[in-house]
Amino acid sequence: MYIDACLNSPEDSKQLSTMILRAIQLGYRSLVLNHVVNDNFQPLNNCKTASPKLDVVRSILNSEQIQTILRQQSLNPSNIKIYKRITIVAQKEATLLKLKPDNQNMKQFDIVAVAPQNEQVFKTAVAHSEVEVIQMPSCEDWGYRARVPNVRGCIKRGIKFELCYGEAFQGIFGDMDLIHPQEGILQPICGI
Prior knowledge:
By secondary structure, the protein is of the alpha/beta class. The protein has one domain. The chain is built from 8 helices and 7 strands; from the N terminus they run βαββαβααβαβαβαα. The strands form 2 sheets. Strands 2-4-5-6-7 form a 5-stranded parallel beta sheet. A two-stranded parallel ribbon has the order 1-3. One of its GO terms (molecular function) is RNA binding. Keywords: tRNA processing. Belongs to the eukaryotic/archaeal RNase P protein component 3 family.
């Protein structure tokens, strides 16, 4: 289960608590806290990123707060694994060059994801050893194509693609708008 929630205030902890409890009831045992940042590694503080092309989720609550929520609900915090993820909404290739294994800021995260905003950043992301997830927007013209050889190389290296599909539920042509821009990714995966 993947739940998008914009958590910006202490009042949102009740919403988060409800989501966690529902996930546990459904049998899920892991939670990923997604910290979304821009090219300068500054948090994006509202529910929409600075770029109108991508809608992403962020959580300002840290794992200690999650553990407290679980204890308040009489749940054993050891029953759920909490991972920290950083999603970099990158418009500049130089941003990805800062991602190095010895970078202290990056060591606090379990998962490194990139949301490339242009073709040059996409090409750099698919070749970068620190990137584990590439988040692709849906239902819009990216202004570039995901090249099949690049995608195949990513798959061989274990990079995952996160295809955002929420917008496909809007409008009568939503499903077509979802498939068309992502053909370069779907082709090597599904053989389309």
